[in-house]
Amino acid sequence: MYDVIIVGGGPAGLVAAAYCLRKRLEVLLIAPELGGKANYRMHLAGLEGFEHITGEEIVRKFRSQLQYLDFARIRDMVVEIEPVEEESGEIFVVMTEKGNSFPTRAVILATGVEPMRLHVPDEELMAGRGLSYSATSHAPLFWEREAAVIGSGDLALRSATELVTIAKRVVLVAPESVPESPLKHKLDSYDNVTLLEKHHVTRLHANGYVHSMTVSDTSGNEQEIPVTGVFVELGLHPYSDLVADLVDLDPERYVIVDDRCHTSRSGIFAAGDVTNTYNEQVLIATGEGAKAALAAYDFLLELDA
Ligand SMILES: Cc1cc2nc3c(=O)[nH]c(=O)nc-3n(C[C@H](O)[C@H](O)[C@H](O)COP(=O)(O)OP(=O)(O)OC[C@H]3O[C@@H](n4cnc5c(N)ncnc54)[C@H](O)[C@@H]3O)c2cc1C
Predict the structure, then answer these.
(1) 117-232: same fold as 2-114+236-304?
(2) How far apart are the CA of 102 and the centre of ligand 1, in A?
(3) pTM above 0.85, yes or no
(4) Residues contacting residue 176 through CB under 8 Å, at least 6 positions apart
(5) pLDDT (tens digit, 9 = 90+) per residue, 152-179?
């Protein structure tokens, strides 16, 4: 029986595991890889080495600690978490894709989010070479460059508003109409923004790095626009299905946690991007991972008292 099983090997899961190990808990981290989205890095022509501290560097030490302690991690995907009532109280059985099942007294969910994709040819090859899914992370790299933001919602408007003060020109390609809002008015006040409502990006063009995009209107009229940065801000999909029947989710399916990473169910904790905690950044996820581990430790102490 484990004390804690951590689902996910990104910044939140890795730091949670390190803190559980410090507390001498019997811990197992289950993930298909270690590092999560902190492994991702943006490369731009003429800008190698610009990011002085990368997310990857921040989580490297936590990752190497766990790589060394191979009894505390397995490479697998969790497919189900089943609560089981025992005489001593509720425990959880964590089942994996490879057919393993592990009983545990507590679970920390740190499965992250999936950014919605553009669905254009060779999208995966261009990710990190001018194509980004996070303006919060990469907008500062696009100083005086031509950039595009794709999306019609609040996320896209925020990204465009952030970029407009950095980039030379910003094209907001909105698949839907963009409703009037204070953010839209603010964006309208800049003269280096072009809004293309009811347009779609059909292709990205690159020669190592993105250099232009083809956009199409609803009648199929196409134009090629030079851009070196494309920010896909169509929304995020939290990987919360595993616990959807066990804990409360918010309307966008983020796991609702309190300020100690407790979910609505005793014994299940959550940390990082998959939760309703404000914003998606490596530093935030690592702090939340530490907090979830300490909260799980307190929970186990009380169980044993
Ligand atoms: C393209 C991109 C670039 C970014 N760049 C930066 C940046 O430069 N700086 C910055 O601070 N932030 C950046 N971010 C945000 C940052 O990467 C995230 O906030 C951070 O990685 C979140 O950590 P996490 O541990 O919550 O989730 P993730 O890093 O997403 O890790 C989730 C983990 O859970 C695993 N997992 C998922 N489902 C299962 C399952 N069923 N079973 C087992 N394991 C599972 C995954 O394999 C992964 O190991 C970027 C995000 C994106 C999408």
Answers:
(1) yes
(2) 24
(3) yes
(4) 152, 197, 198
(5) 999 999 999 999 999 999 999 999 999 8
